[in-house]
Amino acid sequence: MTVQHLAPEALGPLLDTVRHSSWRWECQGHYAVDEPALHDWQAGRPAVDTDDDRAWRDYIARLRQAGIPFGRLRMLTEPLTPYLEWMVATSQGHNVAAGEDLRWIAESRARDLAVPMPENDFYILDGERVVTLRFDPAADLVGIDVDDTPATVAHSQRWRDTVWPHATHHADLAEAR
Hints:
Elements: E1 3-6, H1 11-15, E2 22-26, H2 35-42, H3 51-65, E3 70-76, H4 82-98, E4 101-106, H5 107-112, E5 122-125, E6 129-135, E7 141-147, H6 150-163, E8 168-169, H7 170-176
């Protein structure tokens, strides 16, 4: 039962330890890591397939091949940020095609359900660890906190179990837009 404070670079190796399940709550309106791709999309330029993009798709493919589910729930700010407009428009070809179970929920609905808010992106790994992502004001990932305390894990799982059934599958959201 520990809490570890780690550098952002520890996230990839940590995700590689997943054996049974992985789920992510994503609630930032913008992530600095994706700015170049967002700017290309806004300018009408074709997407550039980066090494990070390929690595993520390969990671999801490895999980799928091993029968390990990966779910992601993204919160839609109200109004939508340009970043989230881009994510809704492009996630089918990147995240969903790779094998993610991607769903969306409006910020107002998330607040009604009392789920975590923007400062609390997190993963639940194997139902044993919660990995909270820490961002600076510029939306850069600056650290991660890994917590295997049973109360923290149970609390995060309750939030996931509360919000997940209220979320919209990506295909349904994309079709409605």
